[in-house]
Design a protein that fits this description.
9-stranded mixed sheet, 5-stranded mixed sheet, 8 helices, about 25% helix, globular
Length: about 300
């Protein structure tokens, strides 16, 4: 069964791990909602659905035609993400009355892991970095891409609606964009007086904007400097559905882990390791779309 890492944390009795997970989901709209499938082994081979089967009406005696969905076999390999966090034993002993220094250092390392995941979730490309995994920018199918134009153009609500319509069998679970694109969306909504953009609290108590009922997520690693045609100031907006039939995370047994390495030989410090065997999979190409060439 696929679980978000927040749900997985509720099943853990490790207080430090629970605190780490609370830290990493705080600023990540992806990790707050995307479920992760726990797999045994170093990867997952799956069939990605590309097109649904068709149906038709027939007369008595007609010859029935067979129609099946089309699939493409894909393989997602777990990659090793993490880092070490050292805590000086002297500082831990002399300053523990002020705060739990070890927990604070581990949580800062966990935040770095979250930022690296969010970056790779969008921009990952194994052709450039074989140690990482492919992100949604590369995994989005060509026929699921909407363009603002040959040289890009300023965002319009019509184009955003076209992107949303690319995601089939329900609305997207999130619209992922840069802060610049979110500001433009806010400006467009105010200018049209459409009332399509609303603000409400999510389950984590954070104020989140919703466009036509769809959460608007900000990812700081979505570039505003992509080149489209003659324009070099373009960004991308992504629309995706989460789940085992859409975009899902993959994780090794145990999910995100905080491992106590222990005392170090070369210095008077204690080491903790934050590690995650992780990747992502797109089980249905119709659950992921992107809008390219978005200019300010």
């Amino acid at each position: 069964m696929a679980l978000t890492i927040t749900d997985a944390a509720r099943l853990s009795n490790d207080v430090l791990l629970t605190g780490v997970i609370e830290t990493i989901v705080k600023e990540s709209p992806v990790l707050q909602a995307m479920p992760f499938i726990e797999i045994v082994g170093n990867g997952l081979t799956y069939n990605q659905e590309n097109a649904a089967p068709s149906a038709a009406f027939y007369d008595v005696g007609d010859i029935w035609s067979e129609s099946t969905p089309t699939f493409t076999q894909k393989t997602a390999t777990l990659k090793i993400l993490g880092g070490d966090a050292d805590v000086d034993n002297f500082l831990r002993s002399t300053r523990s009355n002020i705060q739990d220094l070890e927990a604070a250092v581990v949580q800062l390392k966990a935040k770095a892991v979250q930022q690296k995941f969010d970056d790779t979730f969008v921009n990952g490309d194994v052709d450039s970095d074989g140690k990482a995994f492919d992100g949604i920018d590369k995994l989005a199918a060509d026929d699921q891409t909407v363009s603002m134009g040959t040289n890009g153009a300023t965002l319009t609500l019509e184009k955003l609606d076209e992107l949303i319509d690319k995601v089939r069998a329900g609305k997207p679970d999130v619209l992922l964009m840069s802060r610049r694109s979110r500001r433009k969306l806010t400006s467009l909504s105010r200018g049209t007086g459409s009332g399509l953009l609303e603000t409400d609290r999510n389950e984590f108590g954070q104020m989140v904007q919703y466009y036509d009922g769809i959460p608007v997520g900000v990812n700081d690693w979505i570039s505003n400097g992509k080149t489209v045609g003659t324009s070099s100031d373009c960004s991308t907006i992504y629309a995706l559905q989460y789940g085992e039939g859409g975009v899902s995370g993959l994780t090794g047994p145990g999910g995100l882990q905080v491992e106590r390495v222990g005392s170090l030989e070369v210095k008077d410090a204690t080491r903790n390791r934050v590690k995650w065997y992780v990747s992502i999979a797109v089980f249905n190409s119709l659950k992921l779309g992107k809008l390219t060439g978005v200019r300010d």
